[in-house]
Specification:
There is one protein chain. The chain has 181 residues and is an alpha+beta fold. The protein is 45% helix and 20% strand. It has helices spanning 5-8, 12-15, 19-34, 46-58, 88-93, 96-114, 119-132, 153-157; strands at residues 38-42, 64-68, 136-144, 162-170, 173-180.
Length: 181
């Protein structure tokens, strides 16, 4: 089952071609077998949540897809099975991913009041910051929550709900996270 192209070919889909096709196939089979009234998918995998919502709507599945808040460790790192792959030093550094997202959100909100930078500049600053700390960012992107289209200064000023999505490697481990604005 192919995900909607406008959602499946961007961000994660760009870096992991075919990934969402597999996700949609597995989730569709699971939902068809179990036939739940409600299914919860986490916001950490924000793009996946959006694709599953769209799939449920497309196939008129009788299930409500509910977004679950990201569960975090005390230091802010999003909980994930991938965290177990981090070395002790990498685990100590890993919360910087969430701190980078917090900084992007703060700068975006400041931008909304002062018009000091563009959203693209804010994204680039965050990528540069992570890179300087030894990360290998695939992306840090500010997008519209409704459809994951690129956000603009105008959409920010209009109060459009936005989300920041990121994927970055720390050592050999690729971590993803998101933060709503």
């Amino acid at each position: 089952m192919d995900p909607p192209q406008q959602l499946g070919d961007i961000l994660e889909g760009e870096f992991r071609p075919g990934f969402f096709k597999g996700v949609c196939t597995v989730v569709l089979k699971l939902l068809s077998c179990v036939q739940p009234k409600v299914a919860v998918f986490g916001k950490k995998d924000y793009q996946q949540l959006m694709i599953i919502r769209q799939m449920a709507k497309q196939f008129a599945l009788p299930v409500e897809i509910i977004p679950g808040e990201t569960v975090r460790a005390g230091d802010g790192l999003a909980l994930s099975s991938r965290n177990g792959c981090l070395s002790v030093q990498e685990r100590a550094e890993a919360p910087e991913l969430q701190r980078a997202l917090q900084e992007v959100r703060a700068r975006a909100l400041e931008l909304n009041q002062r018009n000091t930078h563009s959203l693209i500049e804010i994204e680039k600053l965050a990528v540069d910051l992570l890179s300087s700390r030894g990360w290998q960012p695939d992306y840090i992107a500010i997008r519209q929550q409704s459809d994951l289209a690129p956000a603009s200064n105008e959409s920010l000023q209009a109060g459009e709900p936005l989300v920041i999505l990121t994927a970055a490697k720390l050592g050999k481990t690729r971590l993803i996270d998101s933060l709503e604005i």
